[in-house]
Write a structure and sequence with these properties.
four-stranded antiparallel β-sheet, 4 helices, globular
Length: about 325
């Protein structure tokens, strides 16, 4: 995990609070961070792959468009005043060049720019349509609800994007460094702008496994981003499938999925081949074309990385007779 836990105490460290009012690692997840590579490549704050070329902010997502409808609050990171905002754009996922063209010059979607008393300027993007609760000139305090997570503008998944600026330069909140300073190979050198509560929250939200489950058919990724995880395994299904939904996998990762039958025996077990390249979003499933028996099935999903386990989640589903 690398979201800025540096021991070198900088004067600006520890200002920004928890960004969203939701359960980190369960309902909300870190998806992307700023790009520190000045060229055509991409490097996240700690020289990893949790970014893409030209990305200038921190993205924190919910799982699907169904979660947008649940109104997940976006919180003010500090005390300040709203400079400007925009609302009214629809929530929809960008899936094609035509979709992208429709939001040209409005890529941020519904958003806000907030000037903090400390001199930082924060830009919030992709908030939900009609959800913004503040207007230009309003004073805000850390923890105030600004709006809800959405998918307005140029959004391929529902999330809030936050760009931090200081004196006009983009600054990464995980390290406290301007993007021009280059990424850090050693996280201990970071001077994060997040306070202790936010650092703990972001650690929990930085999980390579978004969700796991058992279903009666192979899930479809594009459908999951729209409607959420597939229906749970039930009596009458013709297959028994364990699945995992992932974010920010790296080249070489392998996915291990074990489905256990009600009698405790291994129903199915698989380990994928190493990934040939990093995957910002990914889904994997394994199982058998066999109807479930009555009882409780369990699925264990692990991300195997560098000889260890980078992520692990499991769940159970009771199938009626």
């Amino acid at each position: 995990m690398s979201l800025g836990c540096g021991a070198s105490g900088a004067a600006l460290a520890g200002e920004f609070g928890v960004p969203l009012d939701c359960r980190p690692g369960i309902e909300c997840f870190v998806q992307q961070q700023p790009d520190f590579d000045p060229g055509p490549g991409a490097a996240d704050p700690f020289c990893g792959s949790k970014t893409y070329d030209g990305h200038d902010g921190t993205d924190i997502r919910v799982l699907s468009m169904a979660d947008v409808k649940r109104n997940v609050p976006v919180l003010a990171l500090g005390d300040g005043r709203v400079l400007r905002g925009r609302d009214g754009l629809p929530d929809r996922l960008v899936k094609s060049p035509a979709d992208r063209a429709d939001v040209a010059d409005r890529e941020c979607g519904n958003g806000l720019v907030v000037a903090l008393q400390s001199g930082f300027e924060l830009q919030y993007c992709h908030l939900g349509q009609g959800s913004i609760r503040v207007k230009s000139g309003d004073a805000v305090a850390a923890g105030d609800v600004l709006g809800m997570v959405g998918a307005s503008g140029n959004a391929q998944f529902p999330h809030v994007h936050v760009t931090v600026r200081k004196d006009g330069a983009v600054v990464d909140p995980a390290t406290g460094r301007p993007l021009s300073a280059g990424c850090l190979d050693t996280p201990e050198e970071a001077a994060p702008l997040w306070n202790d509560a936010a650092i703990d929250w972001l650690k929990a939200a930085d999980d390579p496994i978004l969700a796991v489950g058992l279903a009666g058919a192979p899930p479809v990724y594009d459908r999951m981003v729209e409607t959420g995880p597939p229906p749970a395994l039930k009596s009458g299904d013709t297959a028994t499938v364990g699945w995992g939904w992932f974010a920010n996998l790296v080249a070489g990762d392998r996915i291990h999925i074990v489905v256990t039958a009600p009698d405790g025996s291994v129903f199915s077990q698989s380990t994928s081949e190493p990934l040939p390249r990093a995957k910002a979003a990914f889904m994997q499933f394994a199982g058998r074309n066999r109807a479930p028996s009555p009882g409780t099935y369990n699925v264990l999903v692990e991300v195997l990385r560098d000889g260890g386990v980078a992520g692990r989640k499991e769940t159970s589903v009771a199938v009626g007779g």
